[in-house]
Amino acid sequence: MNKELKKFFKDLVQAPSPSGFEQPAQEVFRNFVKEIADEYKTDVHGNVIALKKGTGKLRLMIVGHADEIGLMVKYIDDDGYIRFTSIGGVDPAILPALKVKIYHGKKVYRGVIGKKPIHLLTDEERGKSPKMQDLWIDFGAKDKKDALKKISVGDHITFDVGMEMLNRDFVTTKATDNKAGVFVAAGVLSELAGEKLAVNVYSVASVQEEIGLRGARTSAFGIDPHVGIAIDVTHATDYPFMNKNVMGDVKLGEGPVLVVGANINPQVFTILKEAAERVKVKYQIEAAPRGTGTDANAIQTTRAGVAAGLVSIPNRYMHTPVEIVSFKDLEGAIKTIAEFARLIDDKTDFIPKA
Questions:
Q1: Fewest CB within a 10 Å sphere: which of 51, 149, 268, 292?
Q2: pTM here?
């Protein structure tokens, strides 16, 4: 992966973007695509849509969601400690002792999540995972009055972690779910830069996926695509206690995951496989017999229906500050989807057949 793409990835994952507060990450996306897209815009919800024009009429939407999980200031007590609630699916068990950043307008304050020390826990308390209501954020305020000079109810909070390479290929950070998808959506445009295509490619960084697939639904309605491919992460099962009988066999570094099932148009799935094979990308397959809980679900049921596909990136430790993905899988997803765009045109038939 070249230095420009690695910098783009790092800037993306480090930009704060809990659901409803995505614009710092969206600005990173805008700055990347503005040089390679024919047009780009931000809609009223905050979705960023970049277009590479084709010679035909077919519209292909590729989308990754820019929002990440996070926290929000709910209440400030008399001693100046922050009580908080979650944005998206946050496991309270991972929160104690984490460093966090609190965003108040243009200002950023650092804090830590506190809980009662192990020495003071009762035997009953030691056997239970903490509840969010039993935790607090300490950011050094003297009292409530002092705290309110700096922050307010409704301020958003992210985990205070950077990006670390674990080896030449594996990277860990707080928000590969789903900055990985945004990265791939932009990377496809970069891969196709300078090429003449039949299809019109809409690369989208959507918002508010973690709270109900909201941005993909509204952006898909506006684009009215014939074909839509969501890029998201999926659970890797190559670490302890993951049940492959239930989750399937998904490994980091073994290629992007092509999803098959009710949420996926069979023609799209077939062409994605062909695309991967043509560019010599190793891929994995995931069975998803129901709705996938990704932006592909929202795209598929937009207007009168869209031929939907889903390309997933294997991800360890989802919804934690130490998610891990493979750059090799990201590159494979970019090459596969770019080749998919080259293979389709106005004559491509996406009607399911027996």
A1: 149
A2: 0.96
Do 351 and 227 touch, CB atoms closer than 8 A? Answer: no
* DSSP SS3 for 95: coil
In this predicted model, what pLDDT tens digit does every residue of 165-205 receive, in sequence order?
A: 998 899 999 999 999 999 999 999 999 999 999 999 999 99
Kindly state the DSSP code that residue 250 receives in the 8-state scheme: -
CATH entry, 71-159, from 3.40.50.10900, 2.30.30.40, 2.40.30.40, 3.20.20.140: 2.40.30.40
Homologous superfamily of the 3-68+174-343 domain (CATH): Zn peptidases (3.40.630.10)
What SS3 state is found at 219? Answer: helix
**30: alpha, beta or left? (left if phi > 0; alpha if psi -120 to 50):** alpha
CB-count exposure of residue 349 (10 Å: 0-12, 13-18, 19+): exposed
> What pLDDT shows up at residue 341?
98
36, pLDDT greater than 90 = yes
Give me the active site residues, please.
209
The predicted pLDDT at position 310 comes to 98
Residue 225, classed as helix, strand or coil, is: coil
**Mean pLDDT over residues 295-300, rounded?**
98
Q: Which of 134, 317, 293 is closest to 235 using CA atoms?
A: 317
Residue 120 pLDDT > 90: no
The DSSP bridge partners found for residue 269 are: none
Domain ranges of the chain: 3-68+174-343, 71-159
